[in-house]
Every structure is written in structure tokens, then in C-alpha cells.
Amino acid sequence: MDESGINNHFGAGVYGPTDNQRESIPMGSLSTVFQAEVMAVFRCIQLLLSKNITRQRILFCSDSRTAIAALAKSTTELALL
User: Fold this and answer.
1) I need a labelling partner for 26 at 20 to 30 A (CA). Which of 41, 42, 46, 53 fits?
2) Which of these, 35, 31, 46, 37, lies nearest to 13 by C-alpha position?
């Protein structure tokens, strides 16, 4: 996964060497580098789950410990009315 920016427009990229998965995710001019990093990790997780890849060790290569930590600490809350 990778994040890159040109003229303050950032995006995320995902690459899976096993199945040659390549994806580019444009994020526009209002996104930050941190948001692009989180999106790249999140998209990797989505792809793994869509392929029913669970209960395996997965290696994420990223230069952003902060992005991975942010996703690891995320929670989902449900409000019942």
C-alpha cells in the first residue's frame, strides 16, 4: 500500500503480489496524507475479507505506524432508539 500526492491532491494505492492486485484510489484535494494512509490499509482489509481470507497472518507494509494504530483502535458503535 502507498500514498502519494501531486499538487496537494492525495490518493492511496494497493498492491497484492499473490494475485497481482493493483488499485489506485484518488482522494481529491481535501484529503491529507494521513487519510490516504488509513484508506490504503482499510482497502487492503476490505479486499482480504472479500476473498474470505481470515485467521491467517497478514503482513502490512507501511511507513505509517500511526495509520495502522488508528485502525486497530477503531470501534463501531450502534445507537438503538
Assistant:
1) 53
2) 37
For residue 80, tell me if it sits in a domain: no
Domain presence at residue 81: no
What gap in Å lies between CA 23 and CA 60, rounded to an integer? 16
- The predicted model scores a pTM of 0.66
Count the domains in the chain. 1
Residues 32 and 65: beta-carbon distance below 8 Å: no
- Residue 20 C-alpha cell reads as 497481482
Is position 79 within any domain? no
Cell of 15: 498492491
